[in-house]
Amino acid sequence: MLDVRRLRMLQHLAAYGTIAATADALHLTGPAVSQQLAVLEREAGVPVVEKRGRTLCLTPAGELLVAHAEVILGDLAAAESDLAALKGGHHGVLRVAAFASVARTLLPHVYRALSRHEDGTAPTLTLRLDEQEPDQALEALRKHRTDVVVAHSYTVLPRNFPHHSQQEFLMEDPVVLCVHPERARSLGLSPGQPADLARLADDPWLTPGPDTSCYEMIQRACGAAGFVPDIRVRSSDFSVLLTLVAAHAGVALAPRLAVPEPHDGVSLHPLLAPVARTICTVVRPGTARNPDVHQFRSLLEQAAARHGSPPTADS
Q: 126-131 and 93-98: which strand pairing?
């Protein structure tokens, strides 16, 4: 009979890629992992890993077992979550990974709600937050280094989520054009009026770095408008970009949630061909009903509802 613990170890090997990294993640020694793999192969009756050069790879049988392991371990996680809920929850430590604009705008509401205890007792749930871009955060989720990811996916740039992961919608975040008010007037744009990106083809552009999905979104949005942006400034700090827009350095596209307040000297406009990002929470299979995960998601949803659909007109 197959042992669930060894299936979990094989799942980790598939995620981490090496025996050394798997051993480190599971707090085991390399020889212990190798020994357990050998036992698993005897249980399965077929090889589950094979060497290709210096790399250890899963065999077709190993890949099949990992696929089944995802389902089995997801069901076990769901059972544990239901038991925890039945007992009233364990209220422990929850590891969260979220991108910067959500960490800046929504998560403070969650922290304030968790710290609000009229009887003076300590918070029942402790968050450990890592600010990470979605790609890195989802990889951390796959490797069991985080419990909940707050991620996004642009309408012009769909995102691949880990197999069997569970996503839950949080909010839509529109992308807006950020220009100096004088440039807006020269384009005949009144406050909040939708802008045609094609009319900005000859402007200097300010963008995040090329390692971000926002950069790729801008490339695709401008490409759909018929031009390649002339990028003069790259900074993944949107406060830097908006400050430079206010200094006549150029124009920028930004998700509305990423625009710092106040944005003096900057005129914001929705796009004539709308672009938005969908923000969602992502968890591993079977953990959505965990009381701590449920509490965090509920508080985050409340924060998103209070934030509402951000206005695109000047304020």
A: parallel
**What pLDDT does 88 receive?**
63
What is the pTM assigned to this prediction? 0.78
Radius of gyration of the chain (CA): 24
Looking up tokens 């890949």 gives 63
309, 95, 115, 173: CA torsion to nearest 10: -10
Region 140-153: mean pLDDT is: 94
Give 51's strand partners.
Answer: 56
User: CA neighbours within 13 Å on the CB side: how many for 131?
Assistant: 8
Here the tokens at position 298 are 């509920």
Q: HSE on the CB side for 294, CA within 13 Å?
A: 15
DSSP code per residue over the chain: ---HHHHHHHHHHHHH-SHHHHHHHHT--HHHHHHHHHHHHHHHTS--EEEETTEEEE-HHHHHHHHHHHHHHHHHHHHHHHHHHHTT----EEEEEE-HHHHHHTHHHHHHHHH--TT-PPPS-EEEEEE--HHHHHHHHHTTS-SEEEEEEETTB--PPPTT-EEEEEEEEEEEEEE-HHHHHHTTPPTT--B-GGGGTTSEEEE--TTSHHHHHHHHHHHHTT---EEEEE-S-HHHHHHHHHTTS-BEEEEGGGS-S--TT-EEEEBSS--EEEEEEEE-TT-TT-HHHHHHHHHHHHHHHHH-S---S--
Tokens of 15: 């995620």
Domains of the chain: 4-86 (1.10.10.10), 173-277 (3.40.190.10)
| pLDDT tens, residue by residue, 249-306 | 999 999 999 999 888 899 999 999 999 999 999 999 888 888 899 999 999 999 999 8
Residues 6+ apart with CB under 8 A from 195: 177, 179, 187, 189, 269, 270, 271, 272
Q: What residue type is 86 in one-letter code?
A: L
